[in-house]
Amino acid sequence: MNVKRFLKFASLCLITLAFFACASQSNKSHTPDSITLDAAINEAASHFIQPLSANARVAIVSFDAPTGRLSDYIFEELWTRFEDSRKFVMVDRRNLERVEAEIRHQYGAGKVDDHALSQMGKQLGAQVLVYGQIVQMSNEYRMTVYATDVEKASSSQRAFNVRGDNKLTSLLNVSAEEEVQRAVATMARNVDKKTVVAIGRISYGDSQTVSSLSSWLKNSIIAGANRQENFSIASDNESSGFAVASRGLTVTPAAVFASSIQAVVIGSFIHLDSDAEVSLQLVSTGGNREILSSSRFIISASELQRRRLSLLPENNNVAVTRNQFEERQKAIEPYAGKNNKWNLTVTPDVLDGIYYNGDYMTMRIYSQRDCYFRITHVDVNGNTQVIYPVSSRDNNFIRAGETRQIPDNTRYRLHEPFGEEMILVAAYDQPFIQGQISGSFSADSIARGLTVVDNNRVSISPSATAKLCYTILPRR
Known about the structure:
Layout: H1 3-28, H2 37-49, E1 57-60, H3 68-84, E2 89-90, H4 97-108, H5 114-124, E3 128-137, E4 140-149, E5 154-162, H6 166-172, H7 176-189, E6 195-204, H8 212-225, E7 231-233, H9 236-246, H10 253-258, E8 263-272, E9 275-284, E10 291-299, H11 301-307, E11 314-315, E12 318-319, H12 322-331, E13 344-348, E14 354-356, E15 360-361, E16 363-367, E17 371-378, E18 383-388, E19 397-398, E20 403-406, E21 412-413, E22 419-428, E23 438-440, H13 443-450, E24 452-453, E25 459-460, E26 464-473
Helix pairs in contact: 2-3, 7-8, 12-13
C-alpha cells in the first residue's frame, strides 16, 4: 500500500470513528425509552382506541404545545386515526373551542379538573374527551395524552418521551408572525358572523405592565384580524368609548349602548427561560364575559432579539431588569387591592394602556361605596407626587356606584421621557388630611403615602386601593 492510499484509508477510518462517536454521544442525550413524535402519536391512538366503547361520541381537543404548528399536527394526526378506525362518532370541531379554552386555563393553573371537563363534555354531547400537552424536558419532549370519561368524570393517561427528529424540529421552527396569525384564525373560526373586535391590554403576567412586545402583538393581531372575514377591527373612537364606559371588561348597559364592540382580545405574556410564553383570549362583551376562544404560543428568544422586543417596560429607551421590575412590583403591593373592603377600580380611557407622545389621558375611578380618595402619580423616572386632590376645586368624594372622570378641571398631556408610569389610588371611608407626597419612588415612600390623618389627627389606613399602569411611546 503506497503512502497516498494509506493516508486515504486512515482518513476514512477517522471519519468512521468520529461518526460512531457522535452517534454514541447523541444516543446519550436521549432516554432509552424515547421514541419519535409519529411513533408516540401511533401508540397513543392505539392505546385509547382499543378499550373505548364502539359508537362512543369522541371529542378531540387541540394539544397544549410550544407552537401552534405542532399543536395542529398532533390534533390532526390523532383525529385521523380515531376517525379512520370507524369505531366512533366524532364531535364537530367547531364546538370544541370552549373546552380548549378551559383546558388551557387549567394547564396554566397547574391542574386539569376532571369534573369541570366532564360538565363541558356533556354540554358538547361527548362521552369521551381526548386532549393533552407536550412540553420540553431537557433534550427531549414529554407528551402526555388524556382521555376523560364524561359520565364517570375520571381520566386515564399515557405519557411518552419524544426525541427530536427533522419533523419535530420543523414543527417547532415557527416565526412569531405565524403564531399570531394562527391564534387570530382560531379566534375567527369561533364566531359565526361578522364580529366587531377591539384589542385590549396584553400585559406582562397579571401586572398590567405593557411593553414593546405588547405593542407588537397588538399590531400583529390587527393585521391578522383584517385578513379574517368574520372580524372587523373597532375604530380608535369605538375602542375609547368602550374603555370609558365599561370599567375594564365589566360591561355595563351603558357600554353596550355606547359601542358596537362585540368582543375584546386580551392577553398576557411571561418569561419562559429566555423565551416569551403568550396567552390570548377572545372575550365576549356580553354580561357573562364568555371566553369565546383562547390560544397559547411561544415566541423564541431569537425572534424577540431579532425584532428588539422586550417583555418588561422600557424607561428612557432602556428596558428595566427583572430585579428592578420585581422590586417595583413589591413596592406597589399595598395598592394591589387584595385586602379591599369594597370594590374600587381605576381604568384608563384606552383599552390597551398605551398612549403616544402628545396624547391627553383621562382615567375613570369607580367605587362600590361612598368614599374619599387620593391619587398618586409615579412618572417614568420614579418621581412620586399626589395629583388629586391638589386644590380646593378638587372634589375627592365619590358616591357608591358612581364612576368619576379624572381630571375634572384640568388636562393631563403626556410627553417625553417615554416609558411606563403608574397611577395609585387610595380610598378612605371618611375625610382625611394629607401632606403633599413627593420624592423618589420606593417602598418607603409608597408606605408613607398610604398613611393620612382624620380631623382629630389620628392616623387612618385606606379601606380600598387600586392601581393603573400605562405606557407612553413616541408618536407613530
